[in-house]
Amino acid sequence: MPRLIRPLPPEITNIIFMAGNRKVVLVEGDDDEYAFRTWYEERLRDVYFHAADSTAHVVAYVAEALRSGTKGHVYGIVDRDYRTDEEAVAWKSDPDTHLLSLWRYEIENYLLEAGALATLLNETYGRKLDAPDVDAIEAQLLEACGELSVKSAANWVISDFGRGEFLGVGYPADRSLILTHLSKELNISDAEADANLAAKEALIEACLSDMVRAHTVIRGKYLLHYLYRVNVHPRMQIDVFTNLLVASVKRYGIPQDIRDIIENRVLG
To answer: Which of 123-137, 166-180, 221-235 has the highest mean pLDDT?
Structure first.
């Protein structure tokens, strides 16, 4: 019996049309698309990266592609967010899945390689100032993780409840303000907010001994803005700094778990 081919929604049809014969990799946002396109510029004849605008869209588009018969053509990459280690790597043991997860929290965490950061800051500072070295950058990152952990913990609580507004990059890392925010957004008592926040803080704190683990629990956008504020002259806009970091990571070496996704699974 011939296999039934379902028509694709217009959004996915347009993406596949733009890709032509290339593999399609759907990512969550424009920052993800820019990073992947830069890192794999030499392979863009083989792979087409497209920002789907949200996790939900990535998941839905990949599911539609699977149902329509384009299984081998379309992949999706989502942020790790609050996945456990096992959940973040589950795709590796399932050769049939086309929905893949980052190992680190989100794409910005991959821009914060201490070596790539130190290299970029040395180039940016020039001869006028002494730029921080790799050890100093590592120390800055760990200090930032400790300061920002309460914000990441709060977002985790909000995610678990499935409602409420997440904390933006500019929201203060002030525990008392955050507790008030949680109580209001989640419609719970101060005591319940405190208990939920403390539980997530403990889980995050256990991962802050080194950046390998910290990158899995602290939001990269928070860290990126912290490092920018501490190290970069305000005349350089953060978007410019971010793009330079993307290029610096490529020169320094694309992290292995990104290579596992693109080179071994998608293009392998």
So the answer is: 166-180
CB-based contact 80:104 (threshold 8 Å): yes
pTM of the model: 0.92
pLDDT digits (tens, 9 = 90+) for 89-130: 999 999 989 999 999 999 999 999 999 998 888 887 665 567
Task: Provide Rg for the chain, Cα atoms.
Answer: 20
Interatomic CA distance for residues 217 and 197, integer angstroms: 14
Instruction: Specify the range with the lowest mean pLDDT, choosing from 61-70, 135-144, 226-235.
Output: 61-70
CA dihedral 152, 157, 162, 163 (to 10 degrees): -80
Alpha carbons 26 and 193: distance in angstroms, whole number: 36
The runs of H, that is alpha helices, within the chain are 10-19, 30-39, 55-68, 85-88, 114-125, 134-161, 175-186, 190-205, 211-214, 220-231, 238-252, 256-259
Structural tokens at position 36: 């992947």
Is 220 in contact with 105 (CB distance < 8 Å)? yes
Structure tokens at 262: 């693109």
Q: Which residue has the higher pLDDT, 266 or 71?
A: 266
